[in-house]
Design brief:
This protein is an alpha/beta fold. It has a domain of 155 residues. It is built from 14 helices and 19 strands. The strands form 4 sheets. The chain has an 8-stranded mixed sheet with strand order 8-7-6-3-2-1-18-19. A 7-stranded mixed sheet has the order 9-10-11-12-13-14-15. The chain has a two-stranded antiparallel ribbon with strand order 4-5. Helix 11 links the parallel strand 12 and strand 13. 46% of the residues are buried. The model has no long low-confidence stretch (mean pLDDT 92).
Length: 422
């Protein structure tokens, strides 16, 4: 790999790996923010600038870690504007347990019974329509689903997917909620058609994920079947039978505990991946999406003891801290955060790590707020020509566009190295 480019999209994520052949792998692109806080510029202008930067790339690949808008709405916007921008799109495969996928079942109810513009509908239902959108834009040949055990190649390097796997442990409360929603519908005989199509859709979704896997076949047929069932199912939206079921279903669906559990489960279903270690490369990286510490703890035996760069999960917040990360030797820590009332600040435990931090935005950092400076100023960086110098001695800290570490943060006012106060 040639370099890593981390983009400030306020509270969101966009990490780009740039290959030695100038191909790019963009991992996520989204934000919950509508504006760039500093000057109230529409956030879509940031997305436009990001995509414009890579128009001359030799190849462009996109990998979505999970189905939350702060990781995908910029990508979806670009997909609709320019279906040919990406040469390949990789999606996380949602696990089924004994033929059931509660995350999808609940998403279907959220689609039909939540207000379309509500946070619940926007956060939780993108997984339902993504395949239809991709089929009609990039095409079946350029879509891939990934799960634990799969691998993919980028810039002559093999990357291994560590999570989620077929053995993903859904919280039993999700199965209970999905069963309660079905039971509420069964009380109204007129909704039998909905329940039948729902079962067909979940079956078609599983077949579609399998067909789009690295070893899958009959991709077009699987996508067309899923699309056909979805059209039948979606045609029922707003019908009298479903309207009659709205109140009991919404009572279950809008329970705060279920909503929070659903959101956190989507986070834990993030694709986690790392490069397959090579003695000659020396550029080991781990990308973690928004998984919790529980997931990383479970993956500890598959992780390396040291990395060149690690993406802190869930914007570096305390809620998703893992002791596993604190025990690793990490040369460079990537943190994408921003000003968002519900987002959470950067954890003080990340700030205290000896890793050199590369942060997109210091607005959620208590260190920066209290000290008025970057936490990296007294850290040593071993990527400089004279190994072990303070980061202040780095050419990038002096405004030079070249960073010896090959990690860059692109903000609203240009590029910088590891100093968020430059």
């Amino acid at each position: 790999m040639d370099r890593i480019e981390l983009h400030d999209v306020e509270y969101g994520d966009c990490t780009v790996l740039v290959g030695r052949d100038q191909s790019v792998l963009m991992v996520d692109c989204g934000s919950v923010s509508q504006y760039v806080r500093r000057d109230q510029t529409d956030i879509t202008q940031r997305f436009d600038a990001i995509f414009h930067r890579y128009t001359a790339a030799s190849a462009r690949y996109f990998l979505l870690t999970h189905y939350h808008r702060d990781h995908m709405n910029g990508f979806l916007r670009k997909l609709r504007q320019d279906p040919n921008y990406f040469d390949w799109v990789c999606l996380p495969a949602l696990p089924y347990a004994d033929g059931r996928c509660p995350i999808l079942g609940i998403a279907l109810y959220a689609h039909f019974f939540s207000a379309p513009q509500s946070d619940f509908a926007q956060v939780n239902t993108a997984c339902l329509t993504i395949y239809d959108l991709l089929h009609n834009t990039v095409g079946a040949a350029r879509i891939c689903t990934l799960r634990a055990g799969d691998s993919f190649m980028f810039d002559r390097t093999v990357y291994e997917v560590l999570s989620p796997g077929a053995d993903f442990a859904y919280d039993p409360a999700l199965f209970d909620a999905a069963a309660s929603l079905d039971a509420a519908m069964e009380q109204i005989p007129e909704t039998a058609g909905f329940l039948r199509l729902k079962a067909e859709y979940l079956s078609a979704y599983a077949a579609c994920q399998a067909a789009l896997s690295p070893t899958g076949m009959d991709r077009d047929a699987a996508l067309e079947r899923l699309s056909a069932v979805w059209r039948e199912l979606d045609a029922l939206r707003g019908t009298p039978a479903l309207l009659a079921a709205a109140e009991p279903v919404q009572e279950i669906l809008y329970a705060p505990a279920l909503r929070q559990l659903y959101i956190e489960t989507q986070n834990d279903l993030s694709l986690v991946f790392q490069n397959r270690r090579s003695a000659s490369e020396g550029f080991d990286i781990l990308l973690t999406g928004d998984v919790s510490g529980k997931v990383l703890d479970a993956l500890s035996t598959k992780l390396y003891s040291s990395y060149y760069a690690v993406k802190a999960p869930h914007h570096g917040t305390e809620s998703h801290w893992s002791a596993v990360l604190g025990q690793m030797e990490i040369a460079h820590l990537l943190i994408s955060n921003g000003d968002y009332h519900a987002g959470g600040e950067v954890s003080g435990r990340y700030i205290a790590m000896e890793s050199v931090k590369h942060c997109t935005n210091p607005s959620a950092c208590v260190w920066f707020r209290e000290n008025g400076s970057c936490c990296n100023r007294l850290l040593r960086c071993y990527e400089q020509p004279a190994a072990g110098q303070l980061t202040l001695k780095c050419s990038a800290a002096a405004g030079n566009r070249f960073a010896p570490c090959r990690i860059y943060v692109f903000g609203h006012n240009g590029v910088r190295g590891c100093h968020c106060d430059r």
